[in-house]
Amino acid sequence: MENKVPGVQSERNLASASTIREQDMNITSIFELTSLRVLNARAIKELPPSIGNLKHLRYLNLSRSEICTLPNSLCTLWNLQILNLDYCVRLVALPKKLTSLRNLRHLCLWDCKSLCEMPSKMRELNGLKTLSMFVVGLKRDNQLEELECLNISGRLQIRHLERVKDHMDAKKAKIAEKNNLRELRLSWERNALSKPEEEVDEKVLEALEPHPNLEYLHVRGFSGRYLPSWMTNASLQKIVHIYIWDCKNCKRFPKLGELPHLETLSLRDAGVEYIIDKEGVGSGLPAKIQFVGLRRLGLIGLPNLKGFSKEQGIKDAFPNLESLLIQDCPSLILPPLSSLQKLESLTCSSSTLGLLSEEDIPSCLGVEIEESLACIPIETLSKFSKVRTLAIMGAKDISVTREGLQALKELTCLWLESCRTMRCLPEGMLRHLTALEYLTIWKCPELLELPEDIKHLKNLDWLVLEGLPKMTCLPQAFQHLTWLVLEDLPELESLPDQLPSLTILAVMNCPKVVSIPALPNLKELTVTWLPTAGKAMSERKWRGLAQDCPCSQFQHLTYLYLNHLPELESLPDQLLCLSMLVVISCPKVVSIPDLPNLNVLNISGCQLEGEMSERKWRGLAQDLPRPIAAMFEKFKTIHAAVI
After folding, report:
1. Which terminus in the chain has less CB density within 10 A, N or C?
2. Residue at a domain's end among 110, 138, 161
3. pLDDT at 2 > cutoff 80
4. Distance between alpha carbon 444 and the CA centroid of its chain, in Å?
5. Residue 2 within a domain
């Protein structure tokens, strides 16, 4: 959610600045800036009581920080409008007098997993527009009725619903009247020793009926046998995504198949036997097409699931299904999937795959190998000749034959994941996959190296290697590669010498890599290390990487991201095309070169001194077309784009 905070503007004098990040100066000094309006302190571990000095503060961002508690003095910030605590996973409690903040409009608590309960009398914050999490308490003043008068919008998590003993308490929350709520997550969090209360849970969930404008619903830990009647077309007219997880007693669903806008249905750890119940389709009436808008269906950990429907056929169902995931459904008997004409992606176990015909398999196939299978012969996949994208997960070993590989010669994308005992790829495997364009190898802890025959892949364009702790080197030549992503390769010592076509390079958490070869066509570069990696990287070697390379190496670079490089002192010169620069936690960086085409700049955790005067820094920051922080929040790293 994007919030616009009144009163935020650029100032020329730091002492009267309205906006600041905690990296920009000593944290103690920040709390002396009594005119401060906006404080971004996401890297902080503890918020001192002196936060109470900032009486004019309107926006406090502590999201993703490591704080566990907040000082009581926070409750004296009468002007505070936005308190962002999203993803503060260690936060266990909020100040008891938080309801004193009568001007608070947005209390962002998304995914604060450790939060035990809410302050008493949350209803007194009647100006709240955002309350992304409510934790049901045991006392009267922190139960669900506190939500009654709050006209909140956006998304809401309600946790610890097992503490609700009377469904009338849930009714008092008046969730059905919150017409601006778009996402609702409801969770019961019983431990293994807790006794399920089926009837209570059913009545509570029935009482938490949302407004028809809801688009996203997630139910988790529900111990009832039947889902509520409002989970139908009449009540959820606009619902797009439904997730039902950890509902082991739930045997039957309402008429989910008649929800016209439902695009995603994810079922995990539930006791359901059929997705489409015969009674749910109607009797004596013309059959309706079930799940007419569904695009993604995930079935995980459903031991009782016997089929999609009792009739087994799916001729009148799932006409727009594009992606199907099946995992740990031992009783499931799949009907022929050939009727799913729009199916593009199927992920299933190797045993399920053996029951399917070639006509059932779409162009994108993911295969999870059972633990009991010591080796998967590639021949078992050879009959699926129309597969173009193949993911193999959990294989201990792969055996290949020339004939089996010939059947997969049109494969363009290969993903190998969690092959935990595999030390090397089968000899000759890559040589025959001549159409391969994308190769990803992820979380294969015993893999030592890539075979030399990878150089025969003339069409290989992208290579992603991640989570390979024993890999020490790479083949020396990739003539046609344009994307290379390397992450969490702690023993890798160097990059290939010849990467003439490479345009995008990301090297992340590879502490032994200390140089980058000449890359004449490089346009985007990401380099990050762990904070301790500076011990393995001397100042002299990094200077060689940053400065001694030919200037022409960086002349086409448009994007540069550097993070946690403790020995880096300066940036390369001649960055004439650079439009985006991000430098984070590089404490020895004291200057940046002239960057005539720079549009986006983010600098934090660096000592900008010397030639980078305060005047120059302010001028650069003010000349940007949009706020730096806002653009950086929208920025996606190369790795995220690839994965």
Report:
1. C
2. 110
3. no
4. 21
5. yes
